[in-house]
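User: I'm putting together notes for a lab meeting next week and I want to include a structural view of one of the chains we've been expressing. I don't have a solved structure, so I'd like a prediction I can at least talk through. The sequence is below, exactly as it appears in our construct file.
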Amino acid sequence: MPSPIQASSLLLMSPEDNCLIARLDLPAGTVVLIDGRDVAMPEHVRLGHKVARRALQPGDKVLRYGALIGTVSAPVAIGAHVHTHNLDSDYIPTYTLDQDGHHFIGNPSK
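Assistant: Thanks for the context. Below is the predicted structure for the 110-residue chain, given as structure tokens.
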């Protein structure tokens, strides 16, 4: 079995997060350390993408930066890529833009 990549290959943004951020490309089969445990990456995960810190089930909420970012839509193994194929976004729009890309208040048709 290959030696584990240093823990710095995955970044924990907040202690309550259940996902980690890849700090480099992690090919399938690469062994990483997640919470003190050696985990073989089940699939390739690109730099900057999310990795499951623990096994996740449909309906589980995903936290990054300590904030809710989405709901799991399919089972996710520890170390697996967390992305649009298994995560539904829970982002709520905070503003609306008119056709010119400017903020508007009220009815955009006026």
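A couple of points you could mention at the meeting. The chain has no helices and nine strands. Residues 1-7, 103-110 have pLDDT under 50 and may be disordered.

User: Perfect, that's what I needed.
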